[in-house]
Amino acid sequence: MDVLNVLTGNLDRPGGAMFPKPATEFAGRRRPYVVGRWKSRVRGLPEANGELPVATLADEIETPGEGQVRFLLTIAGNPVLSAPHGARLDTAFAGLDFMVSVDPYLNETTRHANVILPPPRVLQSGHYDFALLGFAVRNYARYSPPLLPLDERPSEAQILARLAMIASGLEGDLDAFVIDDMLGKATQTPGSGIEGRDVAELRDLLDGETGSERRLDLMLRLGPYGEWAGKGDLSLRKLLDNPHGLDLGALEPRLDEVLKTASGLVELAPPQLMEDVERLRGKLEEEPPEIVLIGRRHLRSNNSWMHNVGPLVGGSNTCTLQIHPSDADRLGLAGEAVVRSAKGQVTVPVEQTDTIMPGVVSLPHGWGHAGSAQNVAAEHPGVNVNTLTDETTIDVPSGNAVFNGVPVTISPTGVIIAH
Predict the structure, then answer these.
(1) Protein fold of 289-412
(2) Residue 345 and residue 80: Cα distance in Å, rounded?
């Protein structure tokens, strides 16, 4: 697997992948979605777009043999809280040979790391919003250069680049390697706008104070509005000269360009889903659980990252079990309740609300900070919803753990239920 892909994962998402999605080959081109090209070593779960499900990470750490995971790198992630059956991962991480975390926090996961590499503060880092621009309602581009100097400390990009080079055994400048690789492919691609041009000449034309900025300049120039694509003049210099950003116009249809299925059609029923229909039908015939658990997110929480920020903890941003009043009355709940699943149990304050349907309860994602080294988070610990989830209960086509619709039983505190 491409070491650059392995080193850029984020394990703080619910259901996050053990390995991340492959990077684009160069701006404007995407690899088609693929699944099942290979499987995990222990449980045989399928990869999807180069990712393995985090549901099998503990298996891969605990099970001896060729390919056993003995080293782990996390980047701004907290899988002990965000992954299914987090307590098992907590134990598994303690048995690793070596662990590195790129993170500003000593949290439930990074406390296992042999080395923690804190990135610079946000104001010391440049920013181009690759992720959220995908949700914009117009074509828009903006780059925010760093407001404060790094004071000789490495940037987050430099930290990740150095780790990638160490893991791959390569020597040299990773940014230069990536730039030359992208330019090489683009100059050999018919109709790219720089077809047949000299790579060294193009490299010398790139702007930017850092390798990251030069890579951004390259992607902007090669993109659909870039000066090297023959459709515009977008570049890093253009964005620096327009600090409030550029409105590039209305969104344009791109389905024919990005659709990569073998049939050339939008395949609403791929084989992986159709093969699972019979199992689904069988489940629909079973007696449904009396109560099922679903997750939820808080606007001021963002996984577990913001629980150590005093002004953001409190108000609606608390860890409660949301339950419909009719269920609360039927179960005799007041104050706190014990929630049990096949995997574990938690005791949590009850919040009655008619915004959730009867038969369904909800716990927020990212909590469970009891004993944390983070002072504010430790004062508002909450409970870890993934004490109740099961890494062996999976969505068959993807191999990801089931985080919603988890059967649970609920009782008032002090009530013992025999199993």
Answers:
(1) Barwin-like endoglucanases (2.40.40)
(2) 16
E strand or H helix that includes residue 266:
none
Q: What is the pTM assigned to this prediction?
A: 0.80
Strands (E), 183-303: 246-250, 292-296
Distance CA 46, CA 273 (A): 13
Model confidence pLDDT, tens digit, residues 141-199: 999 999 999 888 899 999 999 999 998 888 888 999 999 999 999 999 998 889 999 99
Digit-coded pLDDT (tens) for 264-273: 889 888 888 8
Q: Where are the domains of the chain?
A: 3-250, 289-412
* Distance (Å, whole) CA 220 – CA 278: 47
Starting at the earlier edge strand, list the strands of the sheet with 336-340.
Answer: 406-407, 292-296, 360-364, 321-323, 345-352, 336-340, 409-412
Strand-strand pairing, 345-352 and 321-323: parallel
Residue 407 Cα to chain centre, angstroms:
25
* Distance in angstroms (rounded) separating the CA atoms of residues 99 and 69: 11
H/E stretch holding 284 = helix 277-284
Neighbours of 197 (CB within 10 A): 15
Q: Report d(CA 396, CA 45) in Å as an integer.
A: 9
Nearest Cα neighbor of 412 from 336, 353, 359 is 336
The radius of gyration of the chain's CA atoms, rounded to the nearest angstrom, is 24
38 forms beta bridges with none
